[in-house]
Specification:
single chain, 14 helices
């Protein structure tokens, strides 16, 4: 038999296996290139493995107005807390000049008793921010505890706590503010306690509603079956799932507390001289509104900026914690 009569068969087994291997054309059975399919798989994997916390952070970071407001708010808070100690003049220092308009040396001017207005505004912002932060902390803590206990235990406990909450809600808070502020004096700490005593009720109702819904979930039943105590279930399982509503409410309380402190100080029943606050500065500058408007505008402008910044940050947090928001872009 000649070479031309031999069948076209491979001489070795390796050649046979090599011929039977599929040719890598770079195209998957679905018709998509291999590189694109791999990228799609990585994308799906990254979406699936992203935690809820990461989604919330990414939603908030994409909220441009909230991010700008957060930057402004942090700048104002830090400036108010440490700016007074870094500024050239003290808020109680009396200068030899009076009623000076804004200059490079005194950017906000000098009031009618010879004190640098910028030093007074920094001091007033410090006191107002301290009051607002303390009110937010105290009212959020009290409201969260009362709402969580009422929602978890229900029954007679829920009825008693909610009736107390309703009682505080129907009391005219402004009248009580005025009465208690006159009794306890004009210290910022006492003023914060008075305001916080009437700011916890809305959050208590919100947390109660959240806990009433969450206590029926399967993971709560599983924790109870494993022998977890009521306190552990509330702290470790229920409150972390209600943290969104709590944080959003706390930001709103900061803005409302600043406005409440401003109102009381404006009426002369808040922080009293020789200390000062933004509301007190607005009250003092009102008499010179037409002749020296800078005494009125600067503290008023700062109050507006702080309140707006807090509200915009609260809007961003509310949108970030909202599970109905669309999936974030990559």
């Amino acid at each position: 038999m000649t070479d031309t009569d031999r069948p076209d068969t491979p001489e070795t087994e390796d050649e046979t296996l090599e011929d039977r291997r599929p040719v890598d054309t770079g195209v998957q059975p679905s018709g998509q290139p291999a590189a694109l399919t791999a990228d799609h798989a990585d994308h799906e994997l990254s979406v699936q493995t992203r935690s809820q916390r990461q989604l919330i952070v990414r939603r908030f970071l994409q909220h441009r107005l909230a991010m700008v407001s957060l930057f402004v708010l942090v700048l104002l808070i830090v400036g108010s807390l440490v700016g007074g100690s870094l500024w050239t003049y003290d808020y109680a220092e009396q200068l030899p000049t009076f009623n000076e308009p804004p200059t490079w040396q005194h950017p906000m001017g000098i009031d009618d008793i010879g004190r640098d207005l910028m030093a007074k505004v920094l001091r007033g912002a410090q006191r107002s921010v301290q009051v607002a932060l303390l009110v937010a902390f105290l009212s959020t803590t009290v409201g969260t505890i009362i709402g969580a206990i009422a929602g978890f235990y229900r029954g007679i406990v829920d009825s008693i706590l909610m009736r107390i909450t309703d009682l505080f809600l129907v009391i005219p808070s402004l009248a009580v503010f005025l009465l208690l502020a006159r009794i306890v004096g004009g210290g910022w700490f006492q003023l914060a306690l008075i305001i916080a005593a009437f700011f916890w009720m809305p959050l208590a109702r919100i947390v109660r509603a959240e806990v009433l819904s969450l206590r029926e979930k399967e993971y709560v039943e599983a924790a109870r079956a494993l022998g977890a105590s009521d306190a552990r279930i509330i702290v470790r399982h229920l409150l972390p799932n209600a943290i969104g509503s709590i944080i959003v409410n706390a930001t709103i309380v900061v803005a409302v507390a600043i406005l409440a402190e401003t109102s009381l100080s404006y009426l002369g029943l808040g922080i009293a001289a020789p200390d000062t606050s933004l509301g007190l500065l607005v009250s003092e500058g009102q008499a010179a509104f037409k002749t020296r408007p800078h005494l009125f505008y600067w503290p008023g402008f700062l109050i507006i900026i702080i309140a707006l910044s807090v509200n915009f940050v609260g809007d961003g947090l509310r949108d970030a914690f909202d599970p109905r928001q669309k999936r974030v872009r990559q």
